[in-house]
Amino acid sequence: MNSTPATPVPPSNGDEAASGPAAPRHLVSIDDVSLGEMHALFEHADKFAADPKGFADSCPGFISASLFYEPSTRTRLSFESAMLRLGGGVLTAAEMTSSSVVKGESLADTIRVVGGGYADVVVLRHPSEGAARLAAQFSPVPVINAGDGSHEHPTQTLCDLYNLHVERGRIEGLDVVLAGDLRYSRTVHSFAYALARFGANIVCVPQPGFELPEYVVQRLYDEFGVNPVRADARGLGKLAANSDAVYLTPQKPHQLSLFTDARGWEVEHVDAVYMTRPQTERHSGKELSETTYLRLEKRAMAAESLRDAVVMHPLPRRDEISDEVDSDPRSIYFKQAARGVPIRMAILAWLLGRLELGADMSDAPNIGYPVPAGTNPCPNPSCISRTERRHVIPRTKVLARDPLKAACGYCTRDLAFEYVGCSSSGMYHAPGAKAVKQIHGNHLVFLESAVAAAESGFRPAGSAT
Ligand code: CP
Q: Do 336 and 273 touch, CB atoms closer than 8 A?
C-alpha cells in the first residue's frame, strides 16, 4: 500500500473546537471531500478490491468505534469489515439503547469519552440532522457520518460514485435517474450534491409527494450552478408513468440551449437508475397510503432509454425493485453493497493518516469555509441544534451577503431570521439595513425576532447605550 506513517492532517472542516495543528479531518458531509480526493480514494479502493486480504498491515493497533443510534446492516458491517481487513480492531455500539445514552448522556459527552482514548476514529449514525457535525466539534479523533437523519450519508455517496467509476469509467456528463423517495432519502441528497459537482446530469423521478426538497434544489442551484428544468420522461416508459420528472443539469450554455421545446428535455438515454425505498422511519407512512410506490419491474427495464443503464440501490430494498430484476445483468445493487468495503478501507486508512491521497483539496466546499458563531434560529425540528440543546455551540454559515442568506451550520437548512445582530456593537438591525453590509461576517448574529434579540442582549439600532 502507498501508505505513510500517521501524520496530523492540517485542515479542519470548520470544527473550531478541534482546530489547531493536530485537528483531525472529519467526513461529515460529501462537501468535506474534494473531487481530486474522491478520485484518489477510488484508485486506492481499486487496489483494495483487487486484493482484499493483502493490506492487513495497514492500520495495526488502530481501533474504530461504531456508534449507531439507528439500525444498519451495510454501513456498520462494511466499516467493521474494512477496519479488520486493514489490520485494525473495532468497538461496536450497534444498539445505543444499551449504552449510557438511556441515562441521559449527551452525544457530545459520548464522543468526548469514546474519542478520548477508546478509539482512533468514530463512525456515527444518528437520527438528528447535523449530529455528526456536532460530534466533530467535540471529537479529538476523526468522525465519519454514517447517516444523520434525512440529511446526508457521505460514505454511501462515495460508495455510489465509486460504483459509477467502476461501471462507467467516469462520472462527468453521465445521466443519472434518482427515483423514489427523494424527500427523505439522505443517500439521494449527498449523491445529488456530488453528482452536481462532478458535472453529471440528474433526472428526478420522485414518488408523487416525495420530491427533492426545495432546500436541496436551491442549494444545487446556488452553490453548484445546477439548473432544474422540466423533463419529458416518456422515454423512461413505465418507470416514470406516475411521476413528473425534473431534469437537473449543470449550468452549461450548450445544455441550456437544448430546452427550446415546450415539453422540456427529452430523456432518451440513461446511464444509471438509482432506486430508493420509502423512508417510512422518517414520516408516518400515511402519506403513502393512497398511492402505490414506484416499482422497477422487468417491463420497465424494457424502455429503450434504459438499454445500457446500470440499476443501483443503496439498499435495503422493500418492493421497489422486483425480484425478477435481480438476474438482469444491468442490476448492480449487490455488487454496489460489496464495494462498500474497499471504498471504506480507503476512507479509514486516509482519515487515520495511513494513506496519503496527494490530491488538491481546495474545491471541497466545506474546507476553509468560515462558520461564525451566533444564535441559531434553525427552523428544522429534526436538527441536532434543536433535538439536543446541551453542548450545542451555535454555528451559522453565511451563504450570501446581498440579500443576506445564512444556513444552519449543523443541518445546513436556511435560517429563518427577522433581525441581524452585530456581536461587536451589540445592536440589531433589519436584514436589509445599510449598516448590516458593514458588519464583519464573523460578527453576524441571526435573530428570530425582536424578543430573541432582547433575550440575547441586543439593542435596537439607534437606541441609546
Ligand atoms: N445503505 C445503507 O445505509 O444501508 P444500512 O442502513 O443497512 O447501513
A: no
**Any domain includes 111:** yes
C-alpha–C-alpha distance, residues 148 and 127, integer Å:
5
Same domain as 171, residue 101: no
Q: What SS3 class is residue 420?
A: strand
186 CA to centre of ligand 1 in angstroms: 11
Residues 287 and 417 in one domain: no
Task: Give residue 78's domain range.
Answer: 30-149+340-351
CB 205 within 8 Å of CB 300 = no
Query: pLDDT per position in the chain (465 positions), as tens?
Result: 443 323 223 334 445 444 454 689 999 999 999 999 999 999 999 999 999 999 999 999 999 999 999 999 999 999 999 999 999 999 999 888 778 888 889 999 999 999 999 999 999 999 999 999 999 999 999 999 999 999 999 999 999 999 999 999 999 999 999 999 999 999 999 999 999 999 999 999 999 889 999 989 988 988 888 888 888 888 898 888 877 788 888 865 445 455 555 567 788 999 999 999 998 887 766 677 556 789 999 999 999 999 999 999 999 999 899 999 999 999 999 999 999 999 999 999 999 999 999 999 888 887 655 566 566 678 999 999 989 878 887 788 888 888 999 889 899 999 989 999 998 999 999 999 999 999 988 888 899 899 989 988 999 998 766
User: Are 119 and 213 within one domain?
Assistant: no
Residues 211 and 435: their CA atoms lie apart, in Å, by 39
With CA atoms as reference, report the closest residue to 295 among 320, 264, 277, 330: 320
The set of cell numbers assigned to 407 is 444556513
Annotated catalytic sites, by residue? 74-75, 103, 125, 153
What CATH number should be reported for the domain holding residue 450? 2.30.30.20
Please work out whether the CB of residue 156 comes within 6 Å of at least one atom of ligand 1.
yes
Residue 358 lies in a domain: no
Same domain, 216 and 69: no
Same structural domain, 315 and 168: yes
Mutation test residue for ligand 1: of 72, 81, 156, 161, the one with most atoms within 8 Å of CB? 72
User: What is the CATH number for 133?
Assistant: 3.40.50.1370
Let me know whether 306 and 244 are in one domain. Answer: yes
Same domain? 83 vs 188: no
Q: Is residue 7 part of a domain?
A: no
217 CA distance to ligand 1 middle (Å): 24
Question: Distance between CA 270 and CA 266 in Å, rounded?
Answer: 11
CA–CA–CA angle 183, 185, 189 (5° rounding): 85
Assess whether the C-beta atom of 463 lies below 6 angstroms from ligand 1: no
